[in-house]
Write a structure and sequence with these properties.
Layout: H1 31-38, H2 42-50, E1 58-60, E2 63-65, H3 68-82, H4 87-95, H5 102-111, E3 123-126, H6 140-147, E4 152-156, E5 159-162, H7 165-176, H8 181-220, H9 235-277
Antiparallel strand pairs: 1-2, 3-5, 4-5
Helix pairs in contact: 3-5, 5-8
Length: about 280
């Protein structure tokens, strides 16, 4: 029996290789490339654009192209978000910052680790053990408040990193005085809210001032045509900024420590006087 002749193999139609290359100005990139460089999702980039945090891209046909200005600004937003700043606070900071200063802004931010202003070494603790010093076990809502107020960093399902172990020790002493856990949590929330407001003032007044210094320095490096002759920031200037921040750090922390006892005494005296004026 003769085998049937083999059928000739069909050659699939040729498909041109897909390319995402877009012709634009040097240094420009698509939103996907920008997301890859900064680690910010495309969705968040577009959300920040809608919120007015970053400028719209330059359109090349139907494709939006972003440049180094967008990248520097986006890196700053990313880092400030990691530090706990909300979008409205970030927008206020960006509105007060000179145009073209985002690269310097991100540079200053990168000079300091996330523990630059921290005076304590964080400690790990099981979430199930938090609030164990009160007579009644903590409810899930109370545990959530403890773990979501910004003083703890979630590491695992039942593990957090306490960023201020001293505050927990203060909480334990309050528990020994039979202060209810909800009262301690209310006090802690108020402490965080007011401390964050003070910190934002320091950041805006000092951080933005340093950005302006770097921006002015870069302007002096620009040629008459407006192109930077040396796009990198002077390392000596960056080190001087870091040295200044190292000197300002204890001053900023110490100012709060120095002012609070005076204000506490004033509020106590005021409360006592008001109580004495009330009819018995």
């Amino acid at each position: 029996m003769t085998a049937p002749p083999a059928r000739p193999k069909r050659t699939p139609p040729h498909k041109p290789a897909r390319t995402d290359a877009v012709t634009g100005l040097p240094g420009e990139m698509t939103v996907e490339a920008l997301a890859e460089r900064t680690g910010v999702s495309v969705r968040n980039i577009r959300a920040y654009q809608t919120a007015g945090l970053i400028a719209p891209p330059r359109l090349h046909g139907r494709t939006g192209l972003y440049d180094a200005e967008h990248q520097g600004k986006l890196e700053l937003i990313r880092d400030l978000r990691k530090q706990g700043f909300k979008l409205d606070a970030i927008k206020g900071m960006l509105d007060d910052t000179p145009a073209g200063a985002w690269t310097e802004y991100a540079l200053i931010n990168s000079l300091f680790s996330t523990t630059f202003f921290t005076v304590e070494k964080p400690q790990r603790k099981a979430l199930s053990e938090m609030a164990a010093h009160w007579a009644q076990p903590a409810t899930q809502a109370q545990k959530d408040r403890l773990s979501e107020n910004g003083l703890y960093r979630r590491l695992a399902a039942d593990e957090v990193e306490m960023l201020s172990p001293s505050l927990e020790r203060i909480g334990i002493q309050l528990a020994e005085l039979d202060v209810p856990l909800d009262t301690v949590l209310d006090l802690q929330d108020e402490l965080i809210r007011h401390s964050r407001a003070i910190a934002q003032v320091y950041v805006r007044q000092l951080f933005l001032a340093m950005v302006r210094t770097l921006a002015e320095h870069r302007v002096k490096q620009q040629s008459p045509a407006g192109h930077a002759t040396n796009p990198s920031v002077d390392p000596a200037l960056a080190e001087s900024i870091k040295g200044l921040f190292e000197r300002l750090r204890p001053l900023a922390i110490g100012s709060v420590t120095a002012a609070f006892p005076v204000i506490l005494q004033q509020e106590f005296d005021r409360a006592v006087q008001e109580a004495l004026k009330r009819p018995s």
